[in-house]
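Thread title: Can someone regenerate the structure for this chain?

I was given the following input by a collaborator and told the matching structure tokens would be attached. They weren't. Posting the sequence so someone can regenerate them.
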Amino acid sequence: MKLVDKKLADYLDVFEENNSMRRQWGLPDFWGFRKNGQPVWSVAGAADGIFYRDLREPHIVVDEASTTLSTTDKMLWPIARTILPANYFRVGKVIKISAFGKATTDGTAGNYIFKMYYGSADATGQAVAGATVAGTVSQTNISWRAEGIMECRVLGAGATGTARLWGEWRPAVALLASTLQPYTFPASAPTDSTTIDFTLGTQGPNFQLQRSGAGVWTATTTNILFEALN
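Best answer:
Regenerated them for you:
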């Protein structure tokens, strides 16, 4: 037997031994080949394929610049942080954005609206919005976190792609009263976001925030985790 064949035979022996033990415990076979050379495809009850969670780079190690909020939507980080290449998506592809940050309000009353976008700039692209809610005045560097999901549903040709966006913004109750939480987006009537051009390499998922009122309110992103879920 050739050396390479012997190594393969040894590998299959170990593989079959492991699978034999898993069968005794009622577990499915590992993917691969049994000793007789027959492929093992069934993984029922365990992993359902080669999918895995992939944490994309770059990761921020310095807080983003503070964003002064306005009556129009303002991005909470530069789009370069979460931009995606052209033709990145396929039908069923899911990505997740998790962010952490802090917010400050002055003594002037106002309302928040938190949104998740797929776009390239302030108030640009497709978005889903949470409810209009009153922020608490005279707060300094109060923590918040947010998670958003985007799922490609139709690739389309040109600006005919479709995606579903949803998630939750979770500020500390010092900033947003517990009676106004959970704060989900969209606030109601979930539906698909349409007219997305997935062939562009200039867009990405991002969170944006606005406030009403004349005061100076700010928000700062301190951490971003950008994951491909499949």
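The mean pLDDT is 87.
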